[in-house]
Write a structure and sequence with these properties.
337 residues, alpha/beta, Helicase, Ruva Protein, domain 3, 9 strands, 40% helix, globular
Length: 337
């Protein structure tokens, strides 16, 4: 579904209007030249079998890019397997990637194939690869270079034909210099690098994406899709969206579910800039940029919604728990133990 554009005489975001220059290729809805360039690059790199490193902020659409690469490649009819390296405990990630033999560890009651075996002939998407423990990085490098893996507790090498697509919201070059990430693995996975721009750098895409989500969410909620008032459209377009497309989608979902009328106004999105002025954690720090303040507010709001549950907060924000802790420390946000 290609969303509408702001074209009617009253300058409202009309979900029924047909856009002239937007693109929904590979599921990416865009008016911006920067995303059209990204789509062109996806087609280019898809034809090769090289690993691809996809860089971008949380929620910017890195998994969508990886799926686009897979769907445009010769492997499109083979499996596409997603592994979030930041969402799996360090004790289990090796088994998740490479599988295990029966009895390899407590609880291993049966042999289990890992993601690389399941993805044989296709592609594997390693999200948040910067979270991969150092001790496992040589094994991933071996899988890339030798195209073989060993299950946990096993002795036999298993040949796997898998294209690795990796993503990170970290600066892996800095992680390499800090010795948190192996340089040989970094050079291997970054043969080709694609960057996904944050939503605030392509503001002309915000309304088309929002209107698409309006239609989709309303359909799921079994109700007519509300329209955006002109002030609401302007508000959404000016918001910095530290959580990017994921945050925009969640905001639309919440607004649609909680609204009563046929249109959405600014007040339906008041939760995007609501803070508790009495909390010392939300006192404005003038050393922070506007975007950092917006990100800080986004984290505070999600923590409040999750009643301080950091695991659930990290999951809803789409980041690793360790990344959340880093941001809490950076912004001086204190939560109950």
């Amino acid at each position: 579904v290609v969303p509408g554009s702001v074209t009617d005489p009253h300058h409202r975001a009309d979900r029924r209007a047909s856009p002239v220059t937007s693109s929904s290729t590979l599921g990416m809805i865009s008016h911006s030249a920067i995303i059209k360039d990204l789509i062109n690059n996806i087609f280019k790199v898809a034809a090769s079998g090289f690993p691809v490193l996809i860089e971008g902020e949380t929620g910017s659409g890195k998994e969508l890019v990886s799926r686009g690469i897979h769907e445009c490649s010769g492997r499109k009819d083979s499996p596409f397997v997603v592994v979030n390296c930041g969402a799996i405990s360090p004790e289990l990630i090796e088994s998740e990637l490479f599988g295990h033999e029966k009895g390899a560890f407590t609880g291993a009651t049966a042999q289990r194939r890992g993601a690389f075996e399941i993805a044989h002939g296709g592609s594997i998407f390693l999200d948040e690869i910067g979270e991969l423990p150092l001790r496992l990085q040589p094994k991933l490098l071996r899988a890339l270079e030798q195209k073989e893996i060993k299950r946990v507790g096993g002795n036999d090498s298993i040949l796997v034909d898998v294209r690795v697509l990796a993503a990170t919201n970290r600066n892996l070059r800095k992680e390499v210099s800090d010795r948190n990430f192996r340089d040989d693995l970094y050079f291997r996975i970054s043969t080709i690098t694609l960057s996904v721009p944050p939503l605030r750098d392509r503001r002309e895409d915000i309304l088309p994406i929002a209107i698409h989500f309006l239609s989709d969410v309303a359909s799921r909620a079994n109700r007519p899709a509300p329209e955006l008032s002109s002030p609401a459209a302007e508000f959404l377009s000016s918001h910095d969206w530290p959580g990017n497309v994921r945050e925009l989608r969640n905001a639309i979902q919440r607004a649609v579910v909680m609204s009563d009328g046929p249109s959405l106004g600014v007040r339906d999105f008041s939760f995007l800039h609501s803070t508790n002025p009495e909390s010392p954690a939300v006192v404005a720090d003038h050393s922070l940029s506007r975007w950092e303040m917006s990100e800080k507010t986004n984290i505070l709001n999600e923590l409040s919604r999750q009643k301080g549950n950091k695991t659930q907060t990290a999951r809803e924000l789409g980041i690793a728990k360790s990344t959340l802790f880093e941001k809490l420390k950076k912004y001086g946000i204190r939560t109950p133990k």
